Amino acid sequence: MSNKIRKNKSTITGDVIITxxxxxxxxxxxxxxxxxxxxxxxxxxxxxxxxxxxxPSSYAEITELEHEDAFRATxxxxxxxxxxxxxxxxxxxxxRRVAVIAPPGDLVAxxxxxxxxxxxxxxxxxxxxxxxxxxxxxxxHGLTQVIRFIPQPLLLEVTDALQSLLQKGETHAIxxxxxxxxxxRQILRFHCRLSHLAAHTALLSVAATEDEExxxxxxxxxxxxxxPLEPNNNNDDDPDALYQLHAADGxxxxxxxxxxxxxxxxxVLDQVLLEELQCTKNLTIWxxxxxxxxxxxxxxxxxxPLVQRLAQALSPDCEDPYAKCWVERDKCEAAxxxxxxxxxx
Length: 345
Ligand SMILES: *[C@@H]1O[C@H](CO)[C@@H](O)[C@H](O)[C@H]1NC(C)=O
Description:
The chain is of the alpha/beta class. About 45% of the residues lie in helices and about 5% in strands. It has helices at about 1-45, 70, 110-115, 140, 155-165, 175-195, 215-220, 240-260, 265-280, 305-315, 330-335; strands at about 95-100, 125-130, 145-150, 205. The protein has a four-stranded parallel beta sheet with strand order 2-1-3-4, covered by helices on one side. Helix 3 (about 110-115) links the parallel strand 1 and strand 2. Mean pLDDT is about 85; it is low at about 1-10 and about 35-55. Bound molecules: 2-acetamido-2-deoxy-beta-D-glucopyranose. 2-acetamido-2-deoxy-beta-D-glucopyranose binds next to loops.
């Protein structure tokens, strides 16, 4: 009898301990959830109301990554009259083929470029494309000159590309941290490809504009023999304005991803940037890594349909009648074959 009582008593003591542990666990969970939320609300209390349901919540702004300068230091361009900057003209043609190559999205001011080249319609064809040119010289890619813009912050190019590839019925809420990481790797590989092209083909990289006016930079690249444009203080001329216009969309994407993640999303993306720079020797290895193996390990070819669409948009277009894919990597990229076993060295 007394034995039974003692046994009951010890069970009760056990229950009490378990209950206390549970309360402790619940309390610390609530602190984890509400602690960060509180401090965020302290900063934004004028625009936000206390959420009804407890849940992680945060704000992440499109901004330069901590090591973005290391990426910017890799950017190459090739400016005539430097003789190594070839300007291929199609045999039998007098027209220059000038390609503005940019990932899908709205970060290129097409109208402004068209306006600059308008009066040269008879000897210049302006082409907008998202595909990197196949590896090779002018005869291979069929282009006279190439222009690329490098948005600042770079992350804007990632969010803008992913957003522009959403299909009907999809919203920015489907974009995950894995998508952002893969998208960043793809954009870095895109710039890796264009920096290789700048080894031999006339290529203008428009990065930081600061004091220089974008129109006069373009003008002197495209029409070096003409007298420079009158400087004007027109704000249409400012790519920063274009970038700011799209930054809010990017911030919305980042904030949504941050709200679902317990990691600091900007730190994670900075880590991706550093890893990519490291494993590509600052974007100089040849060939650049595949657009189709941009996912997280253990199988980087495992990418969402959205990221696959970006891979397709950036890959060389081997159907282009003016271009030829000679290099095995390019044939594989065009076919979505990341492993490209034939090309294994
Ligand atoms: C890459 O560039 C950084 C400077 O941005 C430099 O410190 C580093 O040594 C470079 N790494 C390689 C492998 O070239």
